[in-house]
């Protein structure tokens, strides 16, 4: 019985050895195959990439280059008109428009007639002016006779003084009514001519023939498009660095040529909502611009600033902020950078990289996914 058990155990062991030998004979080498290598290769930790992964993703790198005269920064801005370049034209009296001399969008010169308004008030001032002129004429005639009587000793000299005072009162009434009609551009017949206060373009026009005009309304707005300003939105990092007098440049874009100007004022406090400061800049010359358009503005520093330049393809957005994917000894790592400006197909950086740093310029989307562990 014991001998039979021993023989059975020996046969079982022999079978196991035979199966193992057959596996080795059929190709099992005990070494991982290419698929196993690839699986192991793709399981590298985020940020650590093998050479095989770099080739498969087509990732290429370039070195950051030193750049001189780096601008302080590039910020968004809106094109606006200076306060003196936008003037409302109001009617001095209530009335009705009887004639229009311009259309909306038309270029006008200072003093050019815009509309004619018929009003009752100029008639009243005209009538009062006529009465004042009559009183003045009467007072002057009476004063002349009074002076003659005084000279002949018929009446006292005080009477002449009274008549001279009456003349001064009448002259004041004439001058006051004439001044009101003159400043209003009105005639004694009751017509008021509205004129352009400055040269420019009729930007807004709400008047129409036969329509009413109120003394508090502005039927016309004239814009002088020969002068523009920029409202710059400075980030918190530039607070205290940007000063009046600094040069600004709006790069050429499409049909718009390069525009230069200078900072004229900088806000004193941060906006709590945007964490930014508003600065104003004046544009040199009279470029063909449209108020309200958004542009990017490059702020030039007073002196040369050190920095680096990289191909624009090396810059990517991570969490809404510019980054470069920096090559390290173990792979790649995202590095926050500060964009100072553009120069052709290269981006100028004022912070984040140093000359000689290698950054990825292709395969950035795939590389970011791998760095995120996806």
How would you summarize this macromolecular structure in one to three sentences?
The protein has six helices and 23 strands.
Average per-residue pLDDT, rounded, comes to: 79
Radius of gyration: 43 Å
Helices and strands, in order, run as HHHEEEEEEEHHEEEEEEEEEEEEEEEEH
State the oligomer: single chain
Largest sheet, spatial ordering of strands:
3-12-15-14-13-16
Give the number of helices. 6
Query: What is the CATH class name of the domain at 51-70 and 305-371?
Result: Mainly Beta
What structural class should be given to the helix and strand makeup?
Answer: alpha+beta
Shape: elongated
- pLDDT < 50 stretches: 17-44
Through-space gap between termini: 64 Å
Specify the CATH architecture of the domain at 51-70 and 305-371: Beta Barrel
Family: Belongs to the membrane fusion protein (MFP) (TC 8.A.1) family.
GO molecular function: transmembrane transporter activity
Pfam families: BSH_RND, CzcB_C
Protein name: Cobalt-zinc-cadmium efflux system membrane fusion protein
